[in-house]
Design brief:
Elements lengths: L17 H23 L1 H18 L1 H19 L6 H7 L2 H15 L7 H9 L2 H13 L3
Helix pairs in contact: 1-4, 1-5, 1-6, 2-3, 5-7
Length: 143
């Protein structure tokens, strides 16, 4: 007898697929990758710099090159296998974790009006506040 009347003023809520949510998070992370990468290389810079100084003290100017080479190799050896990129981590998440992340992304982008994943990505990239929320989600998400 009674029919529900759809509210014509409210746009239909777009369904956010898991793959689209993971791609969006990867795109946001890649846009910020240079800033984050600098934080991760501080230790390597320190090791390489110390080795260059020690090489210069022991061998003079040729020691700069030798110390830099040894320091660079040592930095590589120390960091090898310790880091994975965020997009790689997102790809390797179990389906249940991907679904949790998808729901959290959906909650963040809920107020944006979008029709497909490409449009959503463009809108997020143009909205610094939403980008910050998504980056905060990635950084503080317990993986």
């Amino acid at each position: 007898m009674f029919r529900k009347v759809k509210d014509a003023r409210k746009p239909p809520e777009m369904s956010l697929r898991v793959e689209d949510a993971m791609n969006l998070l990867s795109d946001i992370w890649n846009a910020e990758q240079m800033k984050a990468a600098f934080k991760n290389v501080k230790q390597s810079l320190l090791v390489t710099g110390v080795m260059m100084v020690l090489g210069a003290i022991v061998m003079g100017p040729p020691g700069l090159a030798a110390g830099g080479g040894v320091g660079g190799c040592l930095s590589f050896w120390m960091s090898r296998g310790k880091f994975k990129s965020v997009p790689q981590i997102l790809k390797e998440l179990p389906p249940a974790e991907k679904e949790k992340l998808r729901r959290r992304v959906r909650d963040i982008v809920r107020n944006l009006e979008w029709t497909d994943a490409v449009q959503l990505t463009k809108m997020v990239m143009a909205n610094e506040a939403v980008q910050k929320q998504l980056l905060k989600l990635i950084i503080h998400y317990d993986i």
